[in-house]
Amino acid sequence: MSLSRVHSRALLGLEARPVQVEVHLANGLPSFTLVGLADTEVKEARERVRSAIANAGLDFPNNKRITVNLAPADLPKDSGRFDLPIALGILAASGQISTARLQGWEFAGELSLGGELRPVRGALAMSLALHRDAEKNQQAHPLPLRLVLPCGSAEEAALVPQAQVYRARHLLDVVARFLPEQAGAADPPAGADAGWQQLTVAPNAQAPVYADLADVKGQAGARRALEIAAAGGHSLLLVGPPGSGKSMLAQRFAGLLPAMSSSEALESAAVSSLAGRFSLERWGQRPTIAPHHSASAVALVGGGSPPRPGEISLAHHGVLFLDEFPEFARAALEALREPLENGMIRISRAARQSEFPARFQLIAAMNPCPCGFLGHPSKACRDTPEQIARYQGRLSGPLLDRIDLHIEVPTLQPEELLRSGAAESSALVRERVCSARQRAQARQGHSNQALAGLLLEQHVHADAAALQFLHSAATRFGWSARSTHRVLRVARTIADLAAAHGVGVGHVAEAVQCRRALRPGA
Q1: Domains by residue range for the chain, with CATH
Q2: Alpha-carbon dihedral of residues 192, 193, 198, 203, nearest 10 degrees?
Q3: What kind and span of H or E run contains 456?
Q4: Cβ atoms 364, 403 nearer than 8 A
Q5: Among 127, 134, 278, 395, which is most exposed with the fewest C-beta within 10 angstroms?
Q6: In 3D, which of 382, 372, 287 has the Cα closest to residue 327?
Q7: pLDDT band, residue 206 (cuts 50/70/90)
Q8: pTM given for the model
């Protein structure tokens, strides 16, 4: 048979769309043509596939006109993931393997010149998409859908529940399972050291390890702010002199959050897999992403051709820590406004549009002034009021409006630091955070940070005195409607931590104090 079809997938954002690799062998002037909106890396597969087949001891049809079509033609394809399906398509079209046996299988993998299989990025996204498609089309496709991947990619793809993933080390390992003469060739041999193996990877049963909040001495106000932020899903800005412990506090925030659910762990791992950063050792661990302040807007939100996730998407279901907050480029900071509101980032290009999830908790840290010592008890600030205003003015009002908590982190005196007793551990704080989140979930079905519009009025349960106090504070400080509503959400979280049904004056007063660290208009 001179025509064969092999199934694979192409990445478009976090989606892994089906691709059919069609291979046709015809008589005529020998050539190898690859069509179907293929990127440069895909077109280079011609030389890799030719050498891999020859060096594996198989017959490459040098005397044929080879046409490879990657369908659909309007879907962009990139990377070397199509090397393996193209090679299998050529072998099937030339009769060296069974075309019928390839039905119900999907393949992805880059080939070396010697035929070894190399890992590809996005394996977890491919496995998720394949599993979802199999559930939707059980009647239309009675054959089980199985995925063949190289070592290093198959392990992460097998994390998807009930996924049928097979690992292969060499092109010959795959070819041996689809030879026409072997009726049972699709069954992998026993033995963990075999070149072909079906994987069932159990998620890491050990609890993720985070830095402990007990390491932080003093800073009762900042510790309380971390607890409120974790309980309600709120963003947080830490303002204080150098060495006051802002970075230390932020690095321990992920340990206060509840354990990741299976769906959250899969989504977070899928984004990491797209960027090639996934590691099995970090399965189920909430990421803490801390880009340098020199990072560009594209590095933060993602981009490129094809579009890839940025730092904010890599922090999905985790923490995005931006130290030296005002030092980031203005365009990079303003790009945070949309994902802070809706948890999604959309990257639009002339040829395509991609969406990446970006539901993270923002923890930002900054000095109060350029020299850093404004308000320091023993060091004098050497900046003029104009320099201080210019420095703080790098953060726009709309961006600050979207940050719920603005907390001052003062410098501790040496005697206070040395005499501090044992502080609460992250485990104790996390218990209170989980209890508060459970109350919010039972009441409204999501965290307090997501309360808006009528839902805010319906679930906040604030008494008249509390609303009057909030109105007076908003009028005095000139808060916008967004800032006022965010203070009300924080007050709702404080009430949940106190196991209170309604929001009282005390809860609102603490929420107001949690927004007073930077400047009156913030």
Answers
A1: 3-199 (3.30.230.10), 213-443 (3.40.50.300)
A2: 60
A3: helix 454-459
A4: yes
A5: 134
A6: 372
A7: low
A8: 0.87
